[in-house]
Design brief:
- By secondary structure, the protein is an alpha/beta fold.
- It has a single domain, classed as Alpha-Beta Barrel (TIM Barrel), CATH 3.20.20.
- α1 links the parallel β1 and β2.
- It has eleven helices and seven strands.
- About 45% of the residues lie in helices and about 10% in strands.
- Strands 1, 2, 3, 6 and 7 form a five-stranded parallel β-sheet that branches. A two-stranded parallel ribbon has the order 4-5.
Length: about 325
């Protein structure tokens, strides 16, 4: 708080007192500069209002505009199984491949999220590896037209396996194939908000959609509060975080506002490659289990700590999501 100015008239019967200047106003404590890589899963799209190729082209342009406007070097992870839709034929397939081309034309990178978005926890390792290979050809060819190679892999559901031998065997296979695992340190439930948001728009309920979107932005602030504090607890410093979001209608409409809020938190946006240079990503990690959790929680376990609970969406969003799944 600003100091009160001292009265200069206290010494009327004595020698005049020296004037005293007010104490300088204390500036609010600045947030530390933080760095963040932004990644998007489930390309070309998930939880959108319209799924035809023309509408998806408009959706993709809107989503990518958020990235270019805010200078965010995004990496997108592709499920190539979404490129072929029954009844669309080769023309439809080409149109869906062109959606990925839009990402590369804007300078963004693509990674492999498997062909069919199955779980490593559930499939035999050979079957899962085959699904990774099946998810390569289109994305690798598109990257190749720019002299780039397919180098990042993201686990569907963040499932890394139920036993350590399987996890390590798969990681060794990925490495031999030239992949780097794309970890996540800021996981969240944007997919829950997105499903409810898209459903509201489909039902002609824009007021509900706006309410969900506003709650999403508030929720994401809580998510960042949580993970920033957790990084400080584990490492004694900010880490270069990797954020997971999804290529959905909600983020096409609101990612720009989210990025603005992150700038206000003093975040700089960096590439995934730059983020992974942080020594935190070399930390011991032997997590296996049924839950797909962030690498922050992996490291908690490796350090012998109990897993801390991340923020949840508000009840009205969760209830709407569960109702929509029935």
């Amino acid at each position: 708080m600003p100091a009160l100015a001292l009265c200069a008239g206290l010494g009327l019967l004595t020698a005049p007192a020296a004037s005293v200047n007010p104490a300088p106003r204390q500036a609010p404590e600045a947030r530390p500069v933080r760095q963040l890589a932004v990644t998007f899963d489930d390309l070309p799209a998930v939880s959108v209002v319209k799924g035809d190729t023309v509408s998806l082209g408009v959706f993709t342009d809107r989503l990518l505009e958020n990235f270019t406007t805010h200078a965010v070097p995004v990496t997108g992870f592709v499920n190539e199984g979404k490129l072929t839709v029954a009844g669309e034929g080769l023309e439809g397939q080409a149109a869906r491949v062109a959606l990925l081309g839009k990402w590369l034309a804007k300078g963004f990178e693509l990674g492999n999220h498997t062909y069919s978005h199955r779980s490593l926890n559930e499939l035999p390792i050979e079957e899962f590896e085959a699904d990774v290979v099946r998810g390569e050809p289109v994305t690798a060819a598109l990257m190749g037209t720019q002299g780039r190679r397919l180098r990042y892999f993201r686990h569907p559901f963040l499932h890394v396996g139920l036993d350590l031998a399987k996890r390590r065997a798969f990681e060794a296979w990925l490495s031999a194939r030239g992949y780097t695992v794309a970890p996540v340190t800021i996981d969240n439930d944007d997919y829950i908000f997105a499903a409810v948001y898209a459903a509201a728009l489909k039902e002609g309920a824009p007021e509900t959609a706006h309410k969900v979107a506003d709650a999403y932005l508030v929720y994401m602030s809580a998510v960042f509060d949580f993970h920033e504090a957790l990084a400080q607890s584990l490492f004694g410093r900010p880490v270069r975080h990797v954020l997971l979001l999804h290529a959905n209608e909600l983020n096409a409409d609101y990612a720009g506002r989210l990025f603005e809020r992150l700038r206000q938190r003093n975040y700089e946006f960096v590439s995934l490659e730059k983020a992974l240079e942080d020594p935190a990503y070399a930390s011991a990690d032997a997590y296996v289990g049924r839950w797909g959790i962030s690498w922050m929680h992996h490291w908690e376990q490796a350090m012998g700590r109990p897993r801390t609970g991340a923020p949840d969406p508000p009840a009205f969003v969760t209830e709407a999501y569960e109702k929509g799944r029935k």
